[in-house]
Amino acid sequence: MSNAAPGLLVDQVRKRYGDVRALDGVSIPLEAGTWLALVGESGAGKSTLVRCINRLEELDGGGIAIEGVDVRERDVIELRRSIGYVPQEGGLLPHWRVLANVALVPRLTNLSDPEARAGEALRLVGLDAKALGRRWPHELSGGQRQRVALARALAAGQGLLLLDEPFGALDAITRSDLHRTVLQVRQDRPLTAVLVTHDVREALLLADRVGVMREGRLEQLAPPAALLRAPATAYVARLLERAEVVR
Amino acid sequence: MTNTHRLLAVTGALLAGAAGIGDTQAPAGARTVVVASKPFGESYLLAEMFAQLLEARGVAVERRPGLGATEVAFAALRAGAIDVYPEYTGTGLLVILGASRDTASRDVFGTVQREFMSRFGVRWLPPLGFENTYAIAVRRETAAEHGLRTLSDLARIAPRLAAGLTPDFIGRPDGLPGLAAAYGLRFAEVRPLSQALKYRALASGAVDVVDGYSTDGLIARYDLVVLADDRGFFPPYDAAAMVGAGVQRDNPRAIAALSELSGRLDERLMRELNARVEVSGEPIPQVAASALRDLGLVDRAGEDTTSLGTTGGATSFGEYMWSRRASLLAQALRHLWLVGLALGAAIAVAVPLGLWLEHERRAAEPVIRAIGAVQTIPSIALLAFMVPLLGIGAWPALVALWIYALFPIVRHTYSGVRDADPDAVHAARALGMTPAQVLRHVRTPLAAPGILAGIRTAAVISVGTATLAAFIGAGGLGEPIATGLALADTRLILSGALPAAALALVVDGLLGLVERAVTPAPLRHAAARRADERR
To answer: What is the pLDDT of residue B528?
Structure first.
């Protein structure tokens, strides 16, 4: 398991769907070990950007590099296996037990003892492999399922994590439990991460940098404190107001 | 040996078995003559007489009784799948040659003999000596009440009567359409009824008029009045043996033997023989043997080689079924063999096709709709289409059953794979499963219950459709049904229909267990929970 968190460079990326410019010249340099949160309304291009990083979507222009290597120069399967991914609905395979789900990527990449790695990843997200490993996904609560999905992303173990609205479907209490878990994981593991969220509070709480997106463009990219102190545009100010985070 | 190799070996062996079916190995030098009949009593009886006579003259014979209707039997004769069957000159002229009644000369036999030879290379042997024309019959009370003696009499009161006619008769030009025009007949109602049902429907009063054959044993059994064809509408229906090109070329001995029957039968004799089969329920081989003996054509009874015919009516249904156990078991196994082979071949094609269509979604709907369109062809018609292409016997039946089984399997496979948990599929892709791994580890197991449901549907349909395969000589549990329908023998029909229904239930039940077994445990649970919530 390579624990080195990689640097990520998003450079002038463009992506169109027909007439819609989903990404219109977005650039984000992200140092190794930083957490970036992308906020903005639906359709702003947050998820599209994340999907371009692990090439679920292909860019129309610009480039994305991980540790200086353009993602398009890498084998797409190998690339995806090297990136942890947590979708909103968890996306656990319903016919695989919890431990098998978490061991998915280690098994695909033929790592030694995938189940031990899976157990370790479950421990990181605060779950007991012995108690839950043999369960089916449908036997878990919604919060547990998202923890398992997070563990599965961590078990990929290459230091880059993409989280696409991972806690959006959870109730407030469960969500704040998971926030604590994520903060704990950040302490235990050096990780570079991109978190897509609707929840501005979540972004401010979990990320080192927050990118506000609007209609395929980046309105502002700043650390949480700077964002709160000096919104760059009226749109950013309104977004912060609405989230009731402005003092 | 890999699984694939084993599968190929098994498939090869089964196909070799299929190819063997229908080819009875002839002894060197003497070609086996395939004797066939159409599915009604007199045709069975004449064919059996042909067969016994040929055997008595040292010609090896294979029997293929009860082939579909005129189209199927004649297509089989032309294709060389059968060598001889009894046909009627009027049918040959109007149905096969498609001549209109106006152009039909009086010398019908001369016409069909000439035309069949020049067009098809098929030879009519000299007529057997009796005519079996259509007979329009009514109950004795109806005739007495309305003073009916002729078809012209019938035309007067027809608007107050309901007719129960064979579908064949309703459709063919020498049947109802021509008759209605010639006599100005217009019935209050025309109901298509099978050969076996129409006499019972008439006797019970459900209909007032039926079409029959003038030599029918059942006309006597139900005490019916046959109305005279006073305008001479029906052309002569002289019975004769119709012989295919192969026998004419290679087997003069068979031609000579069959010709011995020419001119030897008359209407009175045929009516009596038919009544022994249809009214008294004597086995056909026995009636044929005694007829040939009485005609001085053979010395002793022919071997009882077929399972046709009925046994005496005194036994209970249970005893009757028990007495038929050996042939029923053979027919049930044959039935299962037909269904199993066709279903296996359909799975081998339809499941991969359904999986492939999931990749080529644009092709999916047109392809599935095209396969579905074939499904709408009535099964008996599809079977009949197969005869000119593949002859008769197992092959055309297997192909037809295979075609029917494709649709439910393709449809369920495609939709099952397409709709398999999209979130799980998305995550599996995003985490680096190859498309093949997604298909194998995610889509297919999640779609397995759906795929199995499609296979299950196809299997049950096939068990039902396979009963019709008997009409093209493929055997199975349809055999007693077809024969029973032809002879108006309810017990014979049930002896095929009940086991076929039981077979369908058993197959459905077993595949239900398989469906449970291939459903991943958590999905089973989810399905059960959904069912609970609905309650």
So the answer is: 58
Chain B contact set for A80 (CB, 8 A):
429-432
- pLDDT value, residue B17: 39
pLDDT at B21 exceeding the cut of 70: no
- The angle subtended at Cα A169 by Cα B423 and Cα A79, nearest 5°, is 45
Within chain A, what is the greatest distance between any pair of CA atoms?
Answer: 53
B241-283 pLDDT tens trace: 999 998 988 898 999 999 999 999 998 899 889 988 888 888 8
At B82-95, the pLDDT tens digits run 999 999 998 898 88
Residue B11 has pLDDT above 90, yes or no: no
Q: Does A138 touch chain B (CB under 8 A)?
A: yes
CB B470 within 8 A of CB B482: yes
The pLDDT value given to residue B103: 53
Which carries the bigger pLDDT value, residue B82 or residue B216? B82
Which ipTM did the prediction report?
A: 0.92
Q: Does A137 touch chain B (CB under 8 A)?
A: yes
As separate numbers, helices (DSSP H) first and strands (DSSP E) second, chain B gives 26, 10
User: Chain A contact for B522, CB < 8 A?
Assistant: yes
Q: State how far the Cα of B440 lies from the Cα of B502, in Å rounded to an integer.
A: 36
Query: Tokens at residue B368, please?
Result: 């599935």
Residue contact B431–A90, C-beta within 8 A:
no
pLDDT, residue B489, reads 80
pLDDT at B471 over 60: yes
Helix (H) and strand (E) counts in chain A: 11, 10
The mean of the pLDDT values for chain B is 84
Closest CA of chain B from A220, distance in Å = 28
| A75 has a chain B CB within 8 A of its CB | no
Q: Which residues pair with B35 in a beta bridge?
A: B63, B84
What's B467's DSSP letter?
Answer: G
**How close B496 comes to chain A (CA, Å)?**
43
pLDDT confidence of residue B530: 53
Name which of B424, B432, B526 is nearest A91 (Cβ-Cβ). Answer: B424
Tokens representing residue B457 in the block: 């549907």
Q: Is B521 on the interface with A (CB under 8 A)?
A: yes
Between CA B319 and CA B321 the distance in angstroms is 5
- Spell out a b/e string for B211-246, using b for 16 or more CB atoms within 10 Å of the CB, else e: bbbbbbbbbebbebbbbebeeebbbbbbbbbbbbbb
- Give the ranges where B57-122 is alpha helix by DSSP (H): 70-79, 89-91, 108-120
Query: For residues B368 and B414, is the Cβ–Cβ distance under 8 A?
Result: yes
Chain A 76-105, CB below 8 Å of chain B: which residues?
A: 77-82, 85, 87, 89-95, 104-105
For A32-42, what is the mean pLDDT? 92
- What's B127's DSSP letter? P
Mean per-residue pLDDT for B287-296? 93
| Chain B interface includes A136 (CB < 8 A) | yes
State residue A14 phi and psi, 5-degree precision.
-130, 140
User: Best interface-test mutation with B: which of A58, A85, A93 has the largest number of B CBs within 10 A?
Assistant: A93
Q: How far apart are CA A152 and CA A92, in angstroms?
A: 9
Question: Across the interface, which of A56, A80, A138 has its CB nearest the CB of B522?
Answer: A138
Q: What is B136-173 written as a DSSP string?
A: EEEEHHHHHHHT--BHHHHHHHGGG-EEEE-HHHHHST
The answer to whether the pTM exceeds 0.80 is: no
Q: What percent of chain B has pLDDT over 70?
A: 88
pLDDT at B143: 93
* Closest alpha carbon within chain A to B448: A95
- CA A67 to chain B, closest CA, distance in angstroms equals 19
Gap between the Cα atoms of B235 and B226, Å rounded: 17
